[in-house]
Design brief:
This protein is mostly helical. It contains 10 helices and 4 strands. Helices cover 63% and strands 4% of the residues. Strand 1, helix 1 and strand 2 form a beta-alpha-beta unit.
Length: 306
């Protein structure tokens, strides 16, 4: 809807993340069309990110540089496509809430995985070997920054958000979480149990974080904090990817797979599921109090409430 104080739509970098209304210049594409178009875009971005990680290897400086480049490319691509296809400001990436959302999410993600590994260690399932590697931790941070941003923009910004228009919030939470888990079946040493665990820990928890805040910054921070703690600090396997660079510590897991997650890593263990269920419930209750649950949209979509 055109507004009296609206400006023409611009495509400059400065305006991509602006929250000011602009004149609608074309009709909003159906949710299904936008879903397909944006998934194709992010498959391409993810492929570029994988190539960048391969080039960077274990080099801390290159990992940081390429990670920053992937983050910038993913964010600007998402903002540009949303503004073009949906004809609205990208409120879910409001830069005024970026610092607080990222800070809170990252700290909570670090804390959640620390609680998980503490439970595993309490039952004798975690230990370390060798010394520490600060360079390894830096390398992992650069890598995981790119992973967190691209996966959250794809799964929460695109898949969840557009499924919500088609199925409502509850349907979108269920479908996007299952998709998130299923896609991890392609990872090394993946199992159906591991995929279901990822669906709960990643799909439901991060989807609930988005529903509670209607912002992508908190899920991005949660994803980054969890992954960085898992590999960059405690040196354990992330979703079966044993070829990831060594982190600050070299973790050693031992004991039953139900506790440690086996070769897939702690994410396939019971401890991780139990720890992540708690914030998931908290986020969903917060969303309910704020009226965050939506039904299927039967008309032209309106911008999400910040």
């Amino acid at each position: 809807m055109a507004l009296n104080n609206a400006r023409p739509l611009k495509s400059t970098l400065k305006d991509l993340f602006s929250q000011e209304p602009f004149v609608v210049s074309r009709r909003v594409r159906p949710a299904g069309v936008r879903l397909v178009a944006m998934v194709v875009l992010f498959v391409a971005v993810t492929s570029l990110a994988a190539g960048a990680r391969a080039v960077a290897g274990d080099d801390p400086l290159l990992s940081l540089l390429f990670g920053a480049a992937v983050v910038a490319l993913a964010l600007t691509s998402y903002a540009a496509v949303v503004r073009a296809l949906e004809q609205r400001p990208v409120s879910e990436l409001d830069t005024t809430t970026a610092a607080s959302g990222l800070r809170t999410g990252t700290l909570v993600g670090l804390g959640l995985f620390t609680a998980t590994i503490a439970i595993v260690a309490l039952f004798g399932g975690y230990g370390t070997k060798g010394g520490v590697s600060v360079g390894g931790a830096v390398t992992v941070f650069g890598t995981m920054a790119g992973v967190a941003v691209t996966e959250e923009l794809l799964f929460r910004g695109v898949v969840f958000r557009l499924l919500e228009e088609l199925t409502g919030t509850r349907g979108a939470l269920t479908i996007s979480a299952l998709l998130f888990g299923v896609l991890h079946l392609v990872n090394p040493d993946a199992t159906v149990w591991g995929a279901l665990a990822i669906a709960v820990e990643g799909g439901l928890m991060l989807g609930a974080a988005y529903v509670a805040t209607r912002s992508l910054w908190l899920p991005i921070g949660l994803h980054l904090g969890w992954n960085f703690a898992e590999s960059g600090i405690y040196g354990t396997t992330v979703s079966g990817n044993e070829d990831a660079p060594a982190g600050l510590l070299q973790g050693v897991l031992s004991g039953p797979d139900a506790l440690t997650g086996g070769s897939f890593g702690p994410e396939a263990g019971v401890a991780a599921i139990l720890v992540c269920v708690v914030p998931t419930v908290v986020f969903l209750r917060a969303a309910g109090r704020r009226g965050g649950f939506r039904t299927r949209r039967r008309s032209t979509p309106t911008p999400p409430t910040p």
